[in-house]
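Board notes, transcribed. Complex of a protein with adenosine monophosphate.
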Amino acid sequence: MIRVYNTATSSKQRLTPRRGKKISLFVCGPTVYDYAHIGHARTYVFFDSFVKYLRSKDYNVFYLQNITDIDDKIIKKATEQKKSPFIVAENFEREYLKDMSLLRVDSVTKYAGATANIEEIISQIERLIKKKYAYFIENDGIYYDISKFKRYGKLSKRSAVQAEDGVSRIDESVKKRNKGDFCLWKFSTKNPKKINPFEPKWRSPWGEGRPGWHIEDTAISEKYFGAQYDIHGGGKDLMFPHHEAEIAQMEAISNKKPFVKYWMHTGFLTVNGEKMSKSLGNFITIRDFFKKHSPRILRFMVLKSHYRSPINYNKDTVEQSIQELKKIDEFLCKINNLRKTDDKNKDITKLIKSTKSKIEKSLNDDFNTPLVVASLFKFITKINTSLSKDNVASGDVDEIMDFLKEIDKVLHFIIASEEELLIKEVSINKELSRMLKERELFREEKKWDDADKIKKQIEKLGYLVEDTKSGPKLKKK
Ligand code: AMP
């Protein structure tokens, strides 16, 4: 049984999708006006890992993510650079997808841009006008009247914007009926002096203009999932007003509730306690992070914290993650250097089984990855103790590796690629392991002189060879 924390009910709830094993999941995507930062990575790595876990449990997850490719910030950048806003958005969407691919975030079923769904957006606004939830402000736009939707504020349990909420300038207008009303459609200016050639516009039944921010998500989710679906995710800055607005739009249009069964929100990646964000200028882009560190370190940094807790980013947190991953690398290096034989230690099989079950229990309980990391390190410590007592049979290596590879399909930080390995002695280790294998072959063929020659070569590299039951072992001189 999988349980997730549902913001809508402020409690952990059993995950029971609406249609058996089928799950429809929508996660708010980025506004593509600049490179993504590691705060974005926090949210998207979590959802990627979560989806991979659900799929490993045979859930058929349709993971939909929108791309906000029309927005004030994009228009501002386009105007500054004298470029088409479509080119700006296309460029940063491409760069975002490259970053995600390096982070091994590859579970999204469909990315859907707002500008590719203008028809769907117009159709939703038409229905809101018909049902009298939307009203016109002349020479300005079409707005949603939140006083008409009695449940407004139920998700976040508030009705006013707070400091770290994600907001859009498009919602500002002095002529609104209520302070919290938000823009569904912004009319293009007809004043020739005010026309910005870098501001795009689309035809609509009410005149040329462009869509508001909140309506793009419900138009896209309705297109792929219908009026109701299972899980909606995003950072907690989107809870209010963005997600409240989505509920108000879709439930008003369809008359069906709940619009979404489970709302999942990630905590912030922070710098000195403040949300990392472009506007505060305290951000580190994903690609700048990758100039110094591998994607694996970022994934680990994200997943070693619980997804709802903040992650305080600083040099020490990165260094600590590196030191912890080094322990995994050293362990795997040791394990892989054991000579493989058929003998097996039953206690290792038992340990794998119990660790597996603990990990599953933690993931089932609101995706508690810090507990998974703790179980992994306990496992490593126990096997290391057995190794030092010569109690690990080399026949256990495959079983240990299979177990770790299996969990790593969800986590992607255990098994490092050659470039991602963090222990310096990797190449020397590889060479040593090759030499050990060669020496073993000579010993099997009773070519003692040749075997001794290799032993001496190994000693020259600073290691002593000890022959044990489970094969030769290296000790630093
Ligand atoms: P944006 O491009 O700002 O709309 O953000 C896209 C997604 O990244 C949203 O789900 C945000 O909540 C999330 N996000 C942005 N900054 C952070 C941060 N510092 N920590 C965690 N998630 C973030």
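The chain has a mean pLDDT of 94. The radius of gyration is 28 Å.
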